[in-house]
Design goal:
This protein has about 450 residues and is an alpha+beta fold. It contains 13 helices and ten strands.
């Protein structure tokens, strides 16, 4: 018996249809989850794609990483939905096969070379080793091949006339999720530093360093001067408080790394010395301005940033800029933006873990993250500004819940419109048969 004859012989067997349904749900579910986790955090997906391109020597393609991130999330998500509900029974498995033909050899290469430590298949939601990812892709590829052979043996949930609507609704949903993830912050924060995280280690409270170790900077007549705690000038004489820094703070590179407890962070100098207390304190309010790509930050953003800094000074809060940029790039930004807040170096990967955006704004109270946003998503950055309320109007859970309810309601409504005539037809036939039985 040939393979084709075998397929035709078992295609409509009950066990085959049950297995087809299980394969649809399994393969479709994996693609849905993969697309969703990529779409929830397009910044993170684009960073991972950039890692891939750099590892393959395709650095000139790095500008396409964000487009690829959005496109890949959309294709994976609506392909997964189509497979799960049995829409486009012939073409959906082919799209999945094309994706797997690309991804499976790629993950094998990663498993052998280790060029990229984590494939990023499920974003930050689920981390798999490269060999585990390759094994997962092999199983998924087998499932896709099975669907290529047997998917038409089982009818889909939706009729052929509305299959395009299923894809359109799925595309609209995942793009809405990606929109918030890119322009505000991810609707689900899978990273180590979600809102509510104690960013400053509690061990800072137990240090012996006091205010005597700080140097205070005040401005008068456009010039800045340094003072100790014992010689602070009188603000009634025209002195304006600018900032403060620890007297023992080194002027070298500062790196932020994950702390050893409570997801806190530790700031280290080039010698590995912990100087977190010199830069951050859990006894004051702090605004972190994150610049993962400082040269790409437009000067047009400087007004809003300076307004936030002015509001922080009025509120006696600290403002700290953090970036992996070079000293020359930092100096150029300060000259162009007239920034009066200090800017320190920070490890690139960890900075991107704290918040998404370029620039991003993170607000701390008592060393705990209260809110974080991209700068462009903050409205009315004008005086007077209440820092605690500036960016806390982003209800990520509520937005995601509403998007999911709208999407599911639309899918259900489509199903009712598309299939209600079949239900009515069955009821009519049943009533007709009953009447005929009564007459006989």
């Amino acid at each position: 018996m040939t393979i084709k004859a075998f397929i035709q012989a078992v295609k409509y067997e009950k066990w085959c249809q049950v297995l087809t349904l299980l394969m649809r749900l399994t393969v479709g579910g994996v693609f849905i989850f993969s697309g969703f986790t990529k779409g929830i955090d397009p910044w993170g997906t684009s960073y991972k794609i950039t890692d891939y391109l750099n590892a393959m020597g395709l650095t000139s393609w790095s500008d396409t990483a964000l487009f690829i991130a959005f496109a890949l999330a959309a294709v994976e998500f609506f392909t997964g939905v189509n497979i799960a509900v049995g829409a486009y029974r012939r073409s959906a498995p082919w799209v999945a096969l094309i994706l797997m033909v690309v991804m499976t050899p790629l993950t094998l290469w990663l498993a052998i070379t280790g060029a990229v430590p984590d494939c990023g298949c499920f974003g930050d939601a689920l981390h798999l080793s490269n060999w585990a990812t390759f094994g997962k892709n092999l199983l998924l590829l087998l499932g896709v091949i099975y669907l290529l052979l047997f998917n038409t043996s089982l009818r889909g949930v939706y009729g052929p006339a509305v299959q395009w609507v299923v894809s359109a609704l799925s595309f609209a949903f995942i793009m809405a999720v990606a929109y918030y993830g890119y322009f505000v912050q991810p609707l689900i924060d899978y990273r180590p530093y979600p809102v509510g995280t104690k960013l400053v280690n509690s061990t800072i409270e137990d240090t012996d360093d006091g205010e005597d170790d700080f140097t205070f900077i005040y401005r008068k007549d456009g010039e800045e001067h340094e003072f100790t705690i014992d010689s602070l000038p009188d603000e009634e004489d025209g002195w304006e408080y600018v900032t403060r820094y620890h007297s023992r703070r080194p002027h070298g590179k500062v790196i932020i790394q994950r702390g050893n407890s409570d997801n806190g962070i530790a700031i280290l100098d080039e010698g590995g010395n912990d100087i977190t207390v010199d830069v951050l304190t859990d006894s004051r309010r702090t605004v972190l301005l994150l610049f993962p790509e400082l040269p790409e930050v437009g000067v047009i953003n400087s007004y809003a940033l300076n307004e936030i800094n002015d509001a922080a000074l009025v509120s006696e809060a600290d403002v700290i800029g953090l970036t992996p940029a070079t000293e020359d790039e930092i100096d150029q930004w300060i000259d162009l933006s007239m920034a009066s807040y200090p800017i320190y170096h920070m490890d690139d990967s960890e900075l991107k873990m704290v918040a998404r955006g370029n620039p991003a704004v993170v607000y701390l109270e008592d060393g705990t993250i209260k809110w974080k946003r991209t700068l462009t998503s903050l409205n009315d950055v004008e005086q007077p500004i209440e820092l605690s309320e500036l960016g806390n109007d982003y209800d990520a859970d509520g937005i995601l819940t509403n998007l999911m309810l709208i999407y599911l309601a639309a899918m259900l409504a489509l199903l009712l419109v598309n299939r209600s005539h079949l239900l009515l037809k069955r009821l009519f036939l049943k009533k007709t048969n009953n009447n005929q039985n009564i007459e006989t």
